[in-house]
Structure formats: C-alpha cells, structure tokens
Amino acid sequence: MKKAVDGLILRELPIGENDKLLTVLTAKEGKLLLTAKGARSMRSKVMPICRLFTYANLEYYEKNDRRWLSGGSVNDSFFGLNSDIEGFALAAYILQVADEITGEGVEAEDILRTTLNTLYCIEKKQKPNAQIKAVYELFAAVASGFAPDLDGCADCGCRESETLWLDVMNGCLICSDCLAKRTGNLPLPEEDAYRARNILLPLDASAAASLRYVCQAPLSRLFAFSLAKGESMTQFCRAAETYLLNHLERGFDTLAFYQSVKETK
Ligand SMILES: [Zn+2]
C-alpha cells in the first residue's frame, strides 16, 4: 500500500551505484528512513525531492522491512540557501542539530515547524545569522528537556544585577555578588561539588532578556526580537552555543564548517 507524508530531508547518504538512503523529518513519526532507488541518476523522477533542505510530499511503500520512495512533489526547496555560503553552512548545522534532537517514531511537530521556519529565516536573511543560530540552539536545548531556569539568581533571586552569570551545567543564573560569595573571590575551580564542570558565562541585561525571551516565547514568535550587534549579542550567542553543546555532550562538523566560512568573510 502506498503512503504519503510531508517531510524535510535532513540527511542523504549515497548507497549502491545510484541509490540514496534519506533521513526525513516528519511531524507525526519523527525521523523516517527512506531508500530512494536510482535517486542519483540524472533521469530519475525522484531526484529533485531527494536533496538536502528539501521539504517535500513524499510517497513511499513498505517492503522487506524497509520504506521505498516511489514519488512525490516539492513543497519548498529552500533554493536560495545555495546562493550564500555562510547561510548554507548555518542551514547545514541546523539540520544536523535537528537530526540529533529527534528520534525515529517520536512525534516531532514543533521541531519540524521550527526547523522549517529557521531555514526560511536564513534564506530570506530576516535576521543576522548569528542571532538565528542562537535562537535555534536555545530552542533545541528546550525541546530536548534542558530548559535553563532564567527567572533570577539561583541563590538570592535577584533579577537586576548588572551582570548575571549563566551557570551552564546547572542550567541557572547566578549574580556577581552570590558568585563572589560562593567562591570567596577565588578563581572558580574546574569542577563544582557535584563534579559538574564549572562553566559560567557573563550576561548583561540585554543578553539575559534575550535568553529569557527565546526560552519562553511561543514558537511562532521565536525570532521576533531585536538585539544590536555588539557585546550583548556576543554574550547571547556564546551562551546559546555553549549551553546546547554542553548539554548534548557533542560537537558538530557542520558547526566547525560554519565557523570557518564566517571567519573568512
Ligand atoms: Zn544572587
């Protein structure tokens, strides 16, 4: 029996002479693996729907415990991503993070929708790439169950301290006064009493407000805030990246690629 599903191509792996194994992100079933026979041949009718970044309606059938792509049509190819290397590199990183935080057979409606919105935002250059990247990283951390508690300092509850510190591994904030009390003004040891690494990142008022906004905003409004380039943006972006990578406990080759093309610009 033929089935059809809307899905975003997260990964394409060449197999055999002419085939591809696709990892597709869908709303209801999370990640699906689809074998696309002949997809690397120029004459293949499924070739246009088997490309990275493509959001397509995919028709498939099941046989021998595998799913085989039989046809379909493109909903959005995000073709504009190909015109800018930095945007392309960022989009590739976004897909790799989406791949990491989703599973086969696990519903992923919010993650699919937010990933599509993020690709659109990059393609249309609606916000600076650094901001888009940080927003998606925080979204991914929250979607994976690692939402930080950003209400106020974890020790005294204050919100108005000039500088707050993001305690990355404990997922909370601490103000400068309480940090000084904790350490007795000595340099922070590498690990805390619970043997978690001590990673504390400074946040000024704007950077802290942006972190709070993204972690609490409705998904359709995630990108709807402005932050001028400068120290606050730098702190916000560093916090988002460090937070996600340390909670996922891994790095990404696409992130290294994004950083290399960003630096040469
Ligand atoms: Zn405090």
Short description:
This protein is of the alpha+beta class and 265 residues long. It has helices at residues 85-101, 109-123, 129-143, 176-183, 205-216, 231-248, 253-263, and strands at 3-15, 19-26, 30-36, 55-63, 66-76, 149-153, 164-167, 172-175, 200-203.
Walk me through this protein's architecture.
The structure is a single chain. This protein has 265 residues and is α+β, with helices and mostly antiparallel strands. The protein has two domains: 3-76, Nucleic acid-binding proteins (OB fold (Dihydrolipoamide Acetyltransferase, E2P), Beta Barrel); 110-265, de novo design (two linked rop proteins) (Up-down Bundle), CATH 1.20.1440. 36% of the residues lie in helices and 25% in strands. The protein contains seven helices and nine strands; from the N terminus they run βββββαααβββαβααα. The chain has helices spanning 85-101, 109-123, 129-143, 176-183, 205-216, 231-248, 253-263, and strands at 3-15, 19-26, 30-36, 55-63, 66-76, 149-153, 164-167, 172-175, 200-203. The strands form two sheets. Strands 3-2-1-4-5 form a five-stranded antiparallel beta sheet. It has a four-stranded mixed beta sheet with strand order 6-8-7-9. Strand 7 and strand 8 form a beta hairpin. Helix 1 (85-101) runs parallel beside helix 3 (129-143). The longest helix is centred in the last third of the chain and has 18 residues, at 231-248. The protein is elongated. Bound molecules: zinc ion (ZN). Zinc ion binds at residues 153, 155-156, 158, 175, 177-178.
